[in-house]
Design brief:
Length: about 150
């Protein structure tokens, strides 16, 4: 596993954007541009691919420790910091409302022994009507059964 793979996996796992990575690296006085980060996160066969060196990964990990834990004078809770990484402008997840069915029977109470069960009655269900009659197709092939 290369340094690039490790860097990519940390970026995805912690939901970090390029500007956040630049800020983390600045905590340890290591300067890198967003363009250089983009080249590091490219595929290996891309013409602008750049290999992540040991120095960059080491400084990122040291900056990440400070970013998540804080310093001795100003400690932080890592879980709170990770929660703040989630994009705030993202659309909320769509949750479909469950349909509410009205029933003639009363809901079960805590004193009832068995919970309310709805039984299906198939006896009064309408029968399916056959709309299309059976059709015999002749497509030129002799039928073995006739």
């Amino acid at each position: 596993m290369t340094n690039n793979d490790i860097f990519k996996k940390l970026r995805v796992a912690l939901q970090l954007r390029d500007d956040q990575i630049v800020e983390i690296l600045e905590l340890v006085d290591f300067r890198v541009s967003k363009g250089e980060l983009g080249n590091i996160f490219r595929k290996e066969d891309h013409k602008d691919y750049m290999e992540c060196g040991d120095q960059l990964l080491r400084n990122f990990l040291n900056g990440l420790v400070i970013h998540l834990r804080g310093t001795k004078e100003n400690p932080k809770n890592p879980k709170d910091v990770i929660k703040s990484h989630k994009p705030k402008d993202a659309k909320p997840e769509f949750k479909a409302k469950k349909p509410e069915f009205k029933s003639d029977k009363k809901a079960p109470t805590s004193g009832d022994k068995k919970p309310f069960e709805k039984k299906k009655n198939f006896k009064n269900a309408p029968k399916k009507i056959q709309v299309v009659e059976k059709v015999k197709f002749k497509n030129g092939k002799p039928n073995q059964k006739d």
